[in-house]
C-alpha cells in the first residue's frame, strides 16, 4: 500500500510517496518517491497580497504532474495541504477550488495551529523526557512548540519565515513577539534542547560537524551560516552547489533558528528527518483505515 502527501509552502511544493510497512502491530512508512519544486508562492502573497495568474498556472501544472506520479505509483490515499502563503492570499480559496476542478487534487488550506499539530504528531517520536523547543521555519511562518516529558505544553505560529525575511515582508513586531514568547514559556532553570525541522536546517545540518547522529551545536550552525555568508549568491549556487531557491533563503532561515536557540538558551539542536509531509502521510493513512472499517 502506498500513501502520498503534498505540502504546498511559501517557497516550494513537495510530493512524498511512502510505502506502508507492517511489522506485527507496528506501522511505519518508507519513502519511495520525493519531488520538490520551487513555486515561491510567498513572493506573490507577501508582495501583492494574492496569487498571480502565473503562479496559479504553475501550481496547477505541478498538481497535474503530482497526480500522474501518484497514479503511476498506484497511491491509495493522499493528503494535500497549503500553508502560510496560500492561507494569507486573498484569492487562496478560489485558487484551490479552480485547481480542484482542473486536476482533481483537493488542497486543504490549514492554519498555523493545525500545521504545528501535524508536525508535532511525528516530531514527538524523536524526543525523550527532557525539555525541547521545536523550531519549524517555513517560507512564510515559523512554528514554535515547547515539549516536556514528550508532551506539547505550548505552541505558537509567527509570521516570520525565510522568504518573508528575504523580501523584507516580515510581520511588524514578529521578532519581538517571538522573543517574548520564548522568554515567557521556556524554563531556563533546566536544560532546553532545540529541535529543528524544515529544508534549510536540514541543509545546514548536512554541512555541519555532527555532535551525535541527529544533533549538532549552535556554534556549528553559526559557523556554517558565516561560511555560506562569505559567498555571493552565484557562488553559493555554483561553488557550494546549493539549489537557487535554497541559496537565497538559507541565511534568513539560519538567523531565525539561531535567534530562537539563543533566546531559549539552547546550545544543541536535534534535526530529525521529519516534517509536515510526514504528518500528512500519517493522517492520510489514518483516514484511509477509517474508511475501510
From TrEMBL:
Signal peptide: none annotated. One of its GO terms (molecular function) is pyrophosphatase activity. Residues 30-281 form the Ppx/GppA phosphatase N-terminal domain. It comes from the Bacteria. InterPro entries: ATPase_NBD, GppA/Ppx_hydrolase, Ppx_GppA_N. It holds the Pfam family Ppx-GppA. This is Phosphatase. It comes from Arsenicibacter rosenii.
Amino acid at each position: 500500500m502506498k500513501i502520498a502527501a503534498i505540502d504546498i509552502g511559501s517557497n516550494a511544493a513537495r510530493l512524498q510517496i511512502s510505502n506502508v510497512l507492517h511489522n506485527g502491530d507496528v506501522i511505519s512508512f518508507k519513502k519511495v518517491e520525493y519531488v520538490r519544486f520551487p513555486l515561491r508562492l510567498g513572493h506573490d502573497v507577501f508582495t501583492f497580497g494574492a496569487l498571480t495568474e502565473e503562479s496559479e498556472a504553475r501550481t496547477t501544472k505541478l498538481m497535474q504532474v503530482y497526480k500522474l506520479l501518484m497514479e503511476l505509483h498506484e497511491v491509495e490515499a493522499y493528503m494535500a495541504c497549503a500553508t502560510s502563503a496560500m492561507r494569507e492570499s486573498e484569492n487562496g480559496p478560489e485558487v484551490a477550488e479552480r485547481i480542484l476542478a482542473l486536476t482533481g487534487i483537493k488542497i486543504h488550506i490549514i492554519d498555523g495551529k493545525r500545521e504545528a499539530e501535524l508536525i508535532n504528531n511525528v516530531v514527538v517520536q524523536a524526543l525523550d523526557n527532557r525539555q525541547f523547543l521545536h523550531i519549524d521555519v517555513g517560507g512564510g511562518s515559523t512554528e514554535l512548540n515547547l515539549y516536556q516529558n514528550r508532551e506539547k505544553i505550548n505552541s505558537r505560529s509567527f509570521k516570520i519565515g525565510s522568504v518573508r525575511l528575504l523580501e523584507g515582508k516580515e510581520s511588524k513586531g514578529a521578532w519581538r513577539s517571538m522573543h517574548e514568547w520564548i522568554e515567557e514559556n521556556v524554563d531556563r532553570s533546566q536544560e532546553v534542547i532545540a529541535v529543528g525541522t524544515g529544508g534549510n536546517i536540514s541543509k545546514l545540518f548536512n554541512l555541519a560537524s555532527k555532535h551525535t547522529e541527529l544533533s549538532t551545536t549552535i556554534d556549528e550552525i553559526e559557523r556554517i551560516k558565516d561560511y555560506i555568508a562569505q559567498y555571493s549568491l552565484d557562488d553559493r549556487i555554483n561553488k557550494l552547489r546549493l539549489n537557487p531557491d535554497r541559496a537565497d533563503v538559507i541565511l534568513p532561515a539560519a538567523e531565525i533558528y539561531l535567534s530562537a536557540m539563543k533566546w531559549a538558551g539552547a546550545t544543541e539542536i536535534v534535526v530529525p528527518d521529519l516534517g509536515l509531509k510526514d504528518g500528512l502521510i500519517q493522517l492520510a493513512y489514518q483516514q484511509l483505515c477509517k474508511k475501510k472499517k
